[in-house]
Amino acid sequence: xxxxxxxxxxxxxxxxxxxxxxxxxxxxxxxxxxxxxxxxxxxxxxxxxxxxxxxxxxxxxxxxxxxxxxxxxxxxxxxxxxxxxxxxxxxxxxxxxxxxxxxxxxxxxxxxxxxxxxxxxxxxxxxxxxxxxxxxxxxxxxxxxxxxxxxxxxxxxxxxxxxxxxxxxxxxxxxxxxxxxxxxxxxxxxxxxxxxxxxxxxxxxxxxxxxxxxxxxxxxxxxxxxxxxxxxxxxxxxxxxxxxxxxxxxxxxxxxxxxxxxxxxxxxxxxxxxxxxx
Length: 278
Prior knowledge:
This protein is of the alpha/beta class. Helix content is 38%, strand content 17%. It is globular and about 65 Å long. 31% of the residues are buried.
């Protein structure tokens, strides 16, 4: 009586074979990433290697060699990896001595001013500059701030201009009230200040760098610490190529440069170190 059941065909479910991770050196991936971005991870390779393995598996690669092959032929995948490995925490009004020095310098002139943040991360630095200049009474109509970063996710966050309380832990309540709108647990930067900063996804070592034009002030803080000696020299050379005049000022992070490299002249005024084209 159960013949109908025995004769019924049972659909077989295909089971994909589990692909085991191939244990091999990540050196070639590191080298390719360094060539593409200038960034090295010598100081934390164990952590980054674990992240690389996770990234590879999540994107269907079973070995570093397979991941490398795909990175070389897939610019979108490479950008995903760049975004994955270059997440940096920053906040508003960081290292304000440099911004205050620049603000005081700008107040001495009435000419148009162009300012570059490279890298600009999620926008806190560029917006801090805009707020500082606005608070100083500078005519913002003559100010242009350009912020670049290799991380496209960071650029998207900067353009959204929506920040946590943590990002504003150094901001006075008066500044927060004047320039931000509280939206639930986030702070939205107001449009009237947002419009003075422009954000671009751009690699400092890319061929399109010179399309940015030239600048009176360049901020490049806490980037060179991730480069080796050769890439640091190349990065500085690229930044120097963007200065407007020999008196244009470059600001670096406190740990980026110990002594003035070739091509730069060091200055120290009002407790602030800065550089000009040497």
